[in-house]
């Protein structure tokens, strides 16, 4: 079929993609609408903050510290080729804060949080719990989706800030421990070099990635197919979509912030 | 009074409902019988708007159920789902009192808990299950918690999807009596799906049999044995041979 009518196939795929984007956008607008209109479900929101934020700290910290350390080693080795070893603190800082901090935290959140939100909501759908919510006069968009997306928007920038700091710390440990940097000078160089824009861009990315991660979990969960297979597909799809969208959004945001 | 007029629903090319006509007078108990997979659950869900019919009209007290204030509409209903559909992140009593803890029927926590424990007692569960989680209960106990949740806010209209499936005969008897009591004492309108002929006779004012996407037969429960309908006869006697195909 594809061989016989390549244009037709292309057209169909394009239409399907556009329709999917439309559905996701509509879903996002509905979620935002429910965030600002009462009733608000405080308990659900608090649990989402705990799950997305607090319980993600270990994985974010470990990812960031190893990445910061590896970054310092590579920059040192690369810089040595043209006698520029001294740039390690500056490049580690910029690399972590502008790119690696937000992207790594975003991807870890996609792996850890998007998947669990999608699996949980999909299971609720499959076991008729979503239907039960409706019959108990509770809107699932308000009760399940809005608190999670709001928590993602608020707490992931904080995780990114933590990741940035721990990543820089990882670089500092390696640089001062085995590359012979002076601890105080390293820190001073880092602080002097970073600009407000670097930090703003980092937190903005965190906010948007957190929103994407939570939204994709909810969207795929709410639209899950039937049975265990439906839950599996929803979970897989949500993580794929969140990861790709986070990387695409990162590219666009980097362009918007730094290519002026 | 609930009325369904030519209701149709298909999932892909699986035409589940093909023109269902049925009316349930206020304050009466209608029991729907029919083979597995004939669309009984889909029928109940259509009335509640959980499934959107492809064609036909469903009215409650003469008003189309798809129009008007949805919250006010749903506040009149209670529903027991076939699988219980308990929220597994909440304890048993929080499940039962779900409606009483939020929204327009919200009341103090202590009072909501008290009502929940009273409803649990009515379905034969002791107060010590109140603080457990649904996953810690047996299937039959989960079913009864679902039943307690359905009746907690004392709705006018209650739907029971296979309320006695998975219960022992004595507990099934208790649940049958409870459903009958709710209709007689609270004046509720009930619609029950069941395969259990003992239940049918204990609960029903009227019986309707769903087969092949339409109501094959409907009438008062006293006429069930003399329906003259070969489908109904085969179903209530549980014969493997007859007009209803049983694929083996
Ligand atoms: N959400 C759905 N999507 C697709 N098919 C469905 C859905 N709900 C029910 N069905 C199909 O409709 C038919 C009737 O289902 P159901 O009403 O659950 O039967 P029962 O009479 O046993 O309660 C079945 O074939 C089922 O597979
Ligand atoms: Mg069913």
From TrEMBL, chain A:
PANTHER family, per the entry: ABC TRANSPORTER PERMEASE PROTEIN-RELATED, PROTEIN TRIGALACTOSYLDIACYLGLYCEROL 1, CHLOROPLASTIC
The keyword rRNA-binding is assigned to this record: no
Gene behind the chain: mlaE
Signal peptide (UniProt feature, chain positions): none
Membrane spanning stretches: 52-73, 149-179, 199-220, 241-259
Name under which the protein is recorded: Putative phospholipid ABC transporter permease protein MlaE
InterPro entries found in the cross-reference section: Permease_MalE (IPR030802)
Record carries keyword Transmembrane helix: yes
GO MF annotation terms: phospholipid transporter activity
Keywords: Membrane, Transmembrane, Transmembrane helix
Gene Ontology cellular-component terms listed: ATP-binding cassette (ABC) transporter complex
TrEMBL record, chain B:
Top-rank taxon, per record: Bacteria
Keyword Ribonucleoprotein included in the entry's annotation: no
UniProt key word Transport: yes
GO molecular function, one term: ATP binding
PROSITE patterns per UniProt: ABC_TRANSPORTER_1, ABC_TRANSPORTER_2
Keywords from the UniProt entry: ATP-binding, Hydrolase, Nucleotide-binding, Transport
Transmembrane segments: none
EC number per UniProt: 3.6.3.-
Domain ABC transporter: 2-237
Protein name, entry field: Glutamine transport ATP-binding protein GlnQ
């Amino acid at each position: 079929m594809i061989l016989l009518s390549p244009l037709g196939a292309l057209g169909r795929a394009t239409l399907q993609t556009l329709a999917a984007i439309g559905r996701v956008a509509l879903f996002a607008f509905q979620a935002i609408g429910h965030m600002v209109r009462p009733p608000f479900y405080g308990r659900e929101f608090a649990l989402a903050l705990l799950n997305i934020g607090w319980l993600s700290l270990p994985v974010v910290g470990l990812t960031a510290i190893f990445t910061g350390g590896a970054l310092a080693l590579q920059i040192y080795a690369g810089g040595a080729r043209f006698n520029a070893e001294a740039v390690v603190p500056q490049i580690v800082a910029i690399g972590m804060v502008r790119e690696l901090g937000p992207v790594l935290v975003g991807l870890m959140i996609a792996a850890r949080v998007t998947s669990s939100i999608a699996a949980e909501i999909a299971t609720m759908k499959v076991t008729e719990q979503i239907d039960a919510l409706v019959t108990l006069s509770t809107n699932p968009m308000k009760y399940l989706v809005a608190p999670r997306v709001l928590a993602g928007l608020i707490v992931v920038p904080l995780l990114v800030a933590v990741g940035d700091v721990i990543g820089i710390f990882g670089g500092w440990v390696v640089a001062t421990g085995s590359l012979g940097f002076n601890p105080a000078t390293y820190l001073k160089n880092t602080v002097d070099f970073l600009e407000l824009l670097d930090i703003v861009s980092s937190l903005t990315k965190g906010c948007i990635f957190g929103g994407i991660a939570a939204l994709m979990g909810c969207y795929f969960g709410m639209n899950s197919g039937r049975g265990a297979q439906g839950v599996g597909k929803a979970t897989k799809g949500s993580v794929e979509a969140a990861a790709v969208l986070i990387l695409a959004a990162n590219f666009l945001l980097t362009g918007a912030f730094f290519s002026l | 009074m609930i009325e369904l007029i030519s209701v149709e629903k298909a999932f892909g090319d699986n035409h589940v409902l093909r023109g269902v006509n049925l009316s349930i007078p206020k304050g009466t108990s209608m029991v729907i019988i029919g083979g597995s997979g004939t669309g009984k659950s889909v029928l109940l869900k259509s009335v509640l708007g959980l499934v959107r019919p492809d064609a036909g009209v469903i009215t409650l007290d003469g008003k189309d159920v798809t129009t008007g204030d949805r919250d006010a509409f749903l506040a009149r209903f209670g529903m027991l789902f076939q699988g219980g559909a308990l929220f597994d992140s909440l304890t048993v009593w929080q499940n039962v009192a779900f409606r009483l803890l939020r929204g327009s029927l919200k009341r103090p926590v202590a009072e909501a808990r008290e009502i929940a424990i009273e409803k649990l007692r009515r379905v034969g569960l002791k107060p010590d299950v109140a603080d457990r989680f649904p996953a810690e209960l047996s299937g039959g106990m989960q079913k009864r918690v679902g039943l307690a949740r359905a009746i907690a806010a004392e709705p006018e209209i209650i739907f029971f999807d296979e309320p006695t499936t998975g219960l022992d005969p004595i507990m099934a008897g208790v649940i049958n009596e409870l459903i009958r009591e709710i209709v007689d004492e609270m004046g509720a309108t009930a619609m029950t799906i069941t395969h259990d002929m003992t239940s049918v006779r204990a609960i029903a004012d009227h019986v309707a049999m769903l087969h092949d996407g339409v109501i094959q037969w409907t009438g008062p429960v006293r006429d069930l044995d003399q329906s003259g309908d070969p489908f109904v006869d085969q179903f209530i006697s549980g014969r493997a041979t007859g007009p209803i195909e049983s694929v083996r």
